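Lab meeting, item 3. Inverse folding demo.
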């Protein structure tokens, strides 16, 4: 297989290196194929080259490599070609099954994440608010504690003291 836009140049190069001793048949694929290197969809052409001799075979392989054409072995007998086609069909079915299972698993995982996403967002906002408040405290290294200062109405001082003591926080105040 070769990219469709390189077919003409490829055909001319094969003609030149073989002095016209390569018979090339080609067919364009209807659907684009994903290029594994780039991930882009590329239009491809399938070709088969008929030739004689190992020397010419080596030169054709070099041209194929230069044009980034994919080379696949083609068995000599019709029985072997049929077996290869059956094997490939079986592998394609297996790969399609794996792809379907992977898509189903991905869908289930994403649905599970979607169910918890709102709750996770709330939890993250609360954690960020706590860390933001803690970052406003000063650290007293000698007593290994955090010191925070705030204004509290005198009428609410006892309620604040009770809440902090329930939380295990010591309170000192100044007026």
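The presenter then showed the designed sequence:
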């Amino acid at each position: 297989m070769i990219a469709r836009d390189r077919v003409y140049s490829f055909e001319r190069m094969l003609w030149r290196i073989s002095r016209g001793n390569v018979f090339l048949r080609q067919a364009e694929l209807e659907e684009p194929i994903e290029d594994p290197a780039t991930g882009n969809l590329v239009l491809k052409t399938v070709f088969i080259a008929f030739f004689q001799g190992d020397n010419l075979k080596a030169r054709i392989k070099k041209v194929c490599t230069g044009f980034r054409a994919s080379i696949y072995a083609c068995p000599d007998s019709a029985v072997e070609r049929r077996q290869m086609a059956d094997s490939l069909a079986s592998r394609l079915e297996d790969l399609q099954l794996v792809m379907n299972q992977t898509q189903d698993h991905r869908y289930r995982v994403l649905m599970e994440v979607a169910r918890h996403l709102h709750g996770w967002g709330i939890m993250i906002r609360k954690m960020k608010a706590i860390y933001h408040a803690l970052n406003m405290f000063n650290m007293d290294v000698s007593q290994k504690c955090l010191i925070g200062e705030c204004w509290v109405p005198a009428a609410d001082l006892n309620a604040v003291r009770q809440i902090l003591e329930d939380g295990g926080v010591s309170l000192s105040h100044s007026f």
